[in-house]
Structures are given as C-alpha cells and as structure tokens.
Design brief:
This protein has four helices and nine strands. With 210 residues, it is of the alpha/beta class. The chain folds into two domains: 123 residues, NADH:ubiquinone oxidoreductase Nqo5 subunit (Beta Polymerase, domain 2, 2-Layer Sandwich), CATH 3.30.460; 50 residues, no CATH class. The strands form three sheets. A five-stranded mixed β-sheet has the order 1-2-5-4-3, covered by helices on one side. A two-stranded parallel sheet has the order 6-7. A two-stranded antiparallel ribbon has the order 8-9. The longest helix has 13 residues. The chain starts with 8 loop residues before the first helix and ends with a helix.
Length: 210
Amino acid sequence: MALPKIADETLSELADAVEAGLSGSLLNAQFAFGELTIVVKREDIVSVLRFLRDDSQTQFWNIIDICGVDFPERKERFELVYHLLSPRLNARIRVKISTDEQTPVASVTGIYPGANWFEREAWDMYGILFTGHPDLRRLLTDYGFEGHPLRKDFPLTGYVEVRYDDEVKRVVYEPVTLRQEFRDFDFESPWEGPDYNLPNIDVGADKKSG
C-alpha cells in the first residue's frame, strides 16, 4: 500500500517503517491533518500498538487518547481511534479499528496502562466492549444509568431525570417528563426565531418591529 510522497521527511520515513512492519495488519493508510492515519485489523490491535511502541523507528511511547465514533448505518457501527505520541520523533499517529455492538476489542492496558480510563469511557459512552480490561465499569455516568449516551440513537432527553426529594432527603430517579412540544425545534436561524407563536408572545410583531 503505497502512500503519496510528502515533503515532511519524518512522516515519510514513519510511513515507510509502518508499511514494512505492519503489512499483514494494515487495511488503509493516509496522511491527514499533518499526521499519519492507519486503519488496521481489529484482532491485531494489541500487536500493532506493541510494534508502534517498541520498534526503534517508531517509538510511540505515549498514548494520548482513545475515542469512539458511532456510524449507525455501518455493519460495524463503531470506530475506535487511538492517538499515540512519539517524543523521540516529535510525531503523532492515529490508529483506527472498527467493531460492532457484540464483538469485543482486546484491551491495550497491558501495553499502555494509561489506556485504562480511555477504554472505560468508550464503554460508558458507546457500549464498546473490551476483553482483558482490569476494571471495565462506567466512568462518567451515574450509578444505574441506562444506555450509552454518545450513541447516535440515544434520545437527547435520556430516559430518566434526577432530582433531590426533600421528603425522603435523597436524590431520586424518575422517568423523563419533558413535554413533547419542548422537544421539537424548527428554528431556521438563531437570529430569526421560530415560525410559530409561543404562548402570549406575538413573534411576528417582534420581527416587524426589528
């Protein structure tokens, strides 16, 4: 898989090293936003990241982030994106894999201990499963939270609302009771306002006076 030649010598040499070392795992590669982005086989993610960390021509010792992306229309709806940094090369690389709602991804905490909370966040927000993680539980949502809020099919209002009940002196969870008319918005522009009149407000008069 030949990448286009670029003027940046460091990135060009990095691309050559990655192509040579990961030829069996590499599905796609491109330069984007001043970084090398590679797509690899899901089942090879551990060996790919170990190579990128340990090989003398790459030395990506630091993991900066792992983030999820949801594409509901795809068969494998989730992308996992690993952002790595090589202090020695002063370069970054972006590694992508795909998975679905049932197929787990191998944890990379054995290679990068800092991946622990990143993987927990991906599980909490998207429901992406990881095998071999030492403590895969929710990180950002509350105890008893239902669903995964960054999925595209998760309702904007959620399923429950939280409030403090002064009678029982504790926080209680209740089904969302937001009235339907406050869920639908038809603003064409934040400067023009809605095409309907709100109660006791003559929107047309306001527009004319403006």
